[in-house]
Amino acid sequence: MSFDKKLKYDRQLRLWANTGQTSLEGSHICLVNATAVGSEILKNLILPGIGEYTIIDDKRVTEEDIFGNFFLDEDDLGNSISSSLAKQLNELNTDVKGYAVSTELSELLRGPAEFWDKFNTIVITNQVASHDLDALLDLLWERRIPVFLVRTAGFYGTLQLFAKEVNVVETHDPAMFHDLRIINPWNELQEYSDSMDIDTLDDEMHAHIPYVIILIKTLEKWKKENGGKIPLEYSKRSEFKRLVESMSRNLEMEDNFKEAAKATHRALQFSQFPPLINDLFQKVDSQEISMDSNVPIFWIYVKALKQFVEKYNELPLPGSLPDMTSTSFAYVTLTKLYGEKARDDERKFKDEVIHVLKASGNSEADVNHNSIHSFCKNIHFLYATTGSRKLYNNSMISAIMKESNSLECSTLFIYFTVMCYFSFADSLQSFPNPGDLEKFKAFFRNMFSLPSSKPLPEGLIKIFKEVIAHSSQSYHNISSFMGGVTSQEILKVSTAQYTPLDNLYVFDGVHSISEKWKI
C-alpha cells in the first residue's frame, strides 16, 4: 500500500489493517434501486475505498427523488437515476470505480447468470417485486454471494442478510483470550520455568517473576498436593487463586503476584477446546460440507485444523503474550518462546492445509500465508453461522399474534408491517394511503394466512396507521441511519472481519430502539 493510501485511510487501517483494506478494495458491490437509503449506503462504502460498485435501476429521476436524495438535484430531472447517482458518487473518491446499469432487474435476471458473478455483495433497497427477489436469491444462494435487503417506511427501517453461511476469522472479540499453555507447557517453556528457582531469588527479582512462570509453578505445586488433578471447578479455582497469593512474600508490594491471581481463571479456562471448534469439526466430517474444488478456504482450514488436533492433541498456539510485571530480559525470553512455538505450529498447520488442498482437488498455490497466520492467531474466536432464505418463520407469526392485548410498540410489529407495506405496493401498484387502512388489514391477513376470527393486535394496527400516515421511503434521518447500519454490515462481510448481523435487524425511529432476530 502506498504512503498516500496509508495517510488517506489511516483511521480505518487501525480497525481492519492492510488485510481488511485489501479485501475492501477488491470488492464489487451491486446496489439494486437508486434510493435515498441506497445512496447513503454507497457513500459510506465509497469513502473508505470500496473497489467498485454498480447501480441497477431503470427509472428516471423525479421530483420526489430529488426531495429525498442528497446526491440528486434539479439538473437530473428526467435523466437516468442510476447514471445520475453514479456521476455524483464518483466524485467522493477517485480510487473507486462506479458503474450504472439502466436496465430493469427482471430483464437482467432473464439474462446470463454470469453477470452476477463479478459482485461480492448485492444490496436491494425498498421496492422490488417478490418474484424478482426469489429469483435473485435462487441465483445467488449456491454462489455464496450475500444479499442485503434494506427497507425504510416512515420512521422505521429493516435490514436482513441472506447468506448461505457466514464465516469470520478476525472477529476482534473484545474478550480477547491469551492462550498461555499453563496447564500443559511445551518442552521449551517448561525448561525455562524449571531454570528459575524462585525461592532463592532476592526480593527485587522475586517481585519481577513473570506471572506465567508463577502460574506454572503454582499449578505444579497444586497437582502434587491434589493427586495430579487440575483445578477445573469454580471452587477449586478459587482455592488455586489463594494458593497463588500465598506464594507471594508481600502481596501488597508484589504486583506480579496480584496479576497472577487475577489471571488464574483466564489462564485455566481453555483446558477444553472452545465449543465452536468441536461443532466445526462435526460439520466438516458430515456430508453437509463438500470437500471439493469449490469449497470455501475457511472449511479447508477447519479440516486442516482437525487433522492438526488429531496429530498433536492441541490447537496451534496463537503466540500473543499480554503485558505483565517482569524484568525486560525475562519478558523478552518469554516473548521469544511463545513466538517460536507459534511459528512452529503455524508451519505444521500449513502442512496440513496443503494436504487438504491436494486431497480436495485444489492447488497448493492457493496457500495464503497471511490468512494461515490470521487463522492460527484467532483460533479461539472463529465465527461461523448458517443463514436462512426465509423472510419470516411461523414462530414469529405466533409471537405477534400473542401480543393481542398489547399497546406497546413491538419491533416484530414493525418488521411485518414494513414487509406488508412493500408487498401491498407490489401487488396493487401503489403504496397504501390513510384511506386504505381496512384494505391494508385484509391484505395483511391474507399475506400471512391469519384467521379472520382472531382480532389483530392493537399495537400492530397502531404501526399500520403510523406507516400509512407517512407513506414515505426517503426521510433523510432514517435513510442516513439505515444506510450507516447497512454499510457497516457490508464492510464486515467485505473485509471478513468483525461479527456480522445474524440475520435480521429492525429499527424503530419513533422510540429510537432496535432489535435483532435470527430467522
TrEMBL record:
Domain (THIF-type NAD/FAD binding fold): give its ranges.
9-512
Q: Which GO terms describe its molecular function?
A: NEDD8 activating enzyme activity
- Kindly tell me the pathway this chain contributes to: Protein modification; protein neddylation
Which of UniProt's keywords are assigned here?
A: Cytoplasm, Ubl conjugation pathway
Give me the Gene Ontology terms describing cellular component.
cytoplasm
Q: What is its main location?
A: cytoplasm
Record's subcellular location: Cytoplasm
Q: What is this protein called?
A: NEDD8-activating enzyme E1 regulatory subunit
Gene Ontology BP, a term: protein neddylation
Give the top-rank taxon of the lineage listed in the UniProt record for this protein.
Eukaryota
User: Which InterPro entries does the record cross-reference, listed alphabetically?
Assistant: APP-BP1 (IPR030667), ThiF/MoeB/HesA (IPR045886), ThiF_NAD_FAD-bd (IPR000594), Ubiquitin-activating_enz (IPR035985)
Q: Which SUPFAM superfamilies match?
A: Activating enzymes of the ubiquitin-like proteins
What lineage does UniProt assign to this protein's organism? Eukaryota, Fungi, Dikarya, Ascomycota, Saccharomycotina
Per the UniProt record, one Pfam family is ThiF
Would you identify the family this protein belongs to, as annotated?
A: Belongs to the ubiquitin-activating E1 family. ULA1 subfamily.
Name the job this protein performs.
Regulatory subunit of the dimeric UBA3-ULA1 E1 enzyme.
